[in-house]
Amino acid sequence: MKKFLFLSVFFVLFSCQKDGFVSVKLVYRQVDGCTWMLQKSDGSLLEPLNLDQFVTNPQEGQRVWVKINPKPVMSICMMGETVEITALKN
């Protein structure tokens, strides 16, 4: 049982992060100023301030790897933590 728990935790930790990159899914939310959001594997949302600098034609459900920095700024969206993307790979 302990081995199974260890392997489960190991898989979750290392499947979601790779070299500082986090796996996210692009989701479209058209609510009060929101547009494209990043959804992490735990379901939490991130509001990227500069997604358009990295993705020119976003697709609903598209999975990408991103490096992000939290940017605590005011947003009318308020659906998730505001972040700045510093790197992105497919």
Description:
It is a single chain. Helix content is 17%, strand content 40%. The protein is α+β, with helices and mostly antiparallel strands and 90 residues long. The chain has one domain: Beta Barrel (OB fold (Dihydrolipoamide Acetyltransferase, E2P)), CATH 2.40.50.500. The protein has a five-stranded mixed β-barrel with strand order 2-3-4-6-5. The relative contact order is 0.23. Residues 4-14 have low confidence and may be disordered.
Quick take:
Helices cover 17% and strands 40% of the residues. It has one helix and six strands; from the N terminus they run H-E-E-E-E-E-E.
Secondary-structure blueprint:
Blueprint: H1 2-16, E1 17-18, E2 21-28, E3 36-40, E4 45-48, E5 63-70, E6 81-89
What would the average pLDDT be, to the nearest integer? 85
Helix content: 10-25%
CATH architecture assignment: Beta Barrel
Spell the H/E element sequence. HEEEEEE
Number of strands: 6
CATH topology: the name is: OB fold (Dihydrolipoamide Acetyltransferase, E2P)
The strands making up the biggest β-sheet line up spatially as 2-3-4-6-5
Low-confidence stretches: 4-14
The CATH superfamily is identified as NigD-like N-terminal OB domain
Coarse structural class: alpha+beta
